[in-house]
Amino acid sequence: MTAQAHTPATGALARQLPPITQLQVGALALVIIGGVNMASYFPRRPPLGLPIALLAGSAAIFAIAAVMLARVRNFAWETFFRVVRWALLAYLIQASMIEYVFVHNHASGAPLVVVTLMLVMFAITIPSVIAFTVARYQVVARSGSHT
Amino acid sequence: MSDDAHAVASTEADSRGEAPPGPVIQVVPVKGLPIVAAIVVLLIVAIAENWQWALDWYHVAGGGLWTGIDLFVGLVLGPILARLSIPARAEFSARFLPKMVLIMPTVVVMTLAAGFQLAVNLGNLQPSNPNHTWLVASFAVVGVMSVIALGVLEPANIAVLFEMRKPRPDGEVIAKLMKRFIYSAGILGLMQVATLAIMTRVATQ
Questions:
Q1: A-contacting residues of B 68-97, CB under 8 Å?
Q2: A11 located within any domain
Q3: What is the pLDDT of residues A78-93, one digit of tens each?
Q4: In this complex, which of A5, A32, A43 lies closest to B147 when CB atoms are compared?
Q5: Quick count: other Cβ atoms within 10 Å of Cβ B52?
Q6: What is the SS3 assignment for A118?
Q7: What is the interface size between A and B, counted as CB pairs within 8 Å?
Q8: Does the residue A12 lie in any domain?
Q9: Residue from the list B12, B150, B162 with its beta carbon closest to the beta carbon of A126
Q10: Which of A133, B28, B107, B176 has CA 20 to 30 A from A15's CA?
């Protein structure tokens, strides 16, 4: 098979993949909205209904994206995990800084737990967006089926 | 399109004006990491000790750099990059983007962590404070900017660097990702104008 047998000017761009990036960015957006909501109440104790709903929505969307990603065939997993590892390290440091500021200012109890979980979502969502964006353009050997 | 074609088409260089293979690209400039580490450690100490001068310095210096870089990249450099040929863009990006990988997260952490601590210390987060509404507005602006920067711009930035590390980079992939980078940088630049308006309002209230 040659490239001429297909539409020209295609390459890695033409590969059809599920809307994983959109879902990951959606999950990130929800958790950031939740974080802004929590921060706007600080140092008072915020009502937790909305932040918890946003956190749960973010986690659910992220899980759907993860399932979709796991089903992709012929994907550059090695590149994906290589990028995830380093990006995760970087964003864990960033999330830790934010957590530190909250703890330093006496955040505690349920609000702190919600903030911590939001920061966990923050720290895992961004590396997964970066790693997916990088890996989707990597060429991998064909292994039969594909998504 | 099948993955087979995906693999083959990306090796077809000449017919699609692929970017020429460039120098070996370091995605993260390792030499800069000790500087970043020093900045973060000093920031932690400044917050722990509530050093007013240091917190002001981190917030003003970090915020000034963040705003200035976003405005310059989005509104000056971006339009110039958009008019360059793909090889020229690739060559520029190979030297420019790795530095952004280190600089931007660092100035963002400096600005936000020190700014939040300053707001707590100055009482600006109390609902009765006249600056409270403005600060919440700035949180919202930063939230939108974070989604664009972290969900769109940075992944495109790093994906371009990985593409350029290939023996035969795909010019179309680089062009698409750079377009995403340029547009999102432009939006961030415009949003920084809102940040400037809010922060100058807070400082003079």
A1: none
A2: no
A3: 999 999 998 998 899 8
A4: A32
A5: 13
A6: helix
A7: 146
A8: no
A9: B150
A10: B28
Is residue A105 assigned to a domain?
yes
User: Is residue A13 within 8 Å of B176, Cβ to Cβ?
Assistant: yes
Structural domain of A58: 18-135
Would you say B140 and A36 are in contact if contact means Cβ atoms under 8 Å apart? Answer: yes
Binary contact (A133, B9; C-beta < 8 A): no
> Please, what is the angle between helix A77-104 and helix A109-135, to 10°?
160
Domain total in chain A: 1
CA distance A55 to chain B (A): 15
Amino acid at the residue B187: I
How confident is the model over A65-78, as pLDDT tens digits?
999 999 998 899 99
The answer to whether the CB of B22 falls within 8 A of the CB of B169 is: yes
Q: Closest by alpha carbon to A7, among B31, B92, B75, B6?
A: B6
Which residues in chain B have their CB less than 8 angstroms from residue A118's CB? none
Buried b vs exposed e over B130-142: b needs ≥16 C-beta within 10 Å?
A: ebbebbbbbbbbb
Distance, CA of B81 to CA of B69 (rounded, Å): 15
Can you give the pLDDT at residue B118? Answer: 92
First to last CA, chain B: 59
Whether A7 is covered by a domain: the verdict is no
Q: What is the model's pTM?
A: 0.83
A75 close to B (CB below 8 A): no
Select the residue from A30, A40, A72, A100 to test the B interface by mutation, using most B Cβ atoms within 10 A.
A40
- pLDDT tens column, A18-63: 999 999 999 999 999 999 999 998 888 899 999 999 999 999 999 9
* CB-closest option in B40, B152, B172 to A11: B172
Q: Give SS3 for A90.
A: helix
Contact B170 A137 (CB under 8 A): yes
Q: Which candidate, B45, B47, B66, places its Cα nearest to that of B111?
A: B66
ipTM of the complex: 0.85
Predicted pLDDT of residue B88:
85
Q: What residues of A are in contact with residue B138 (Cβ under 8 Å)?
A: none
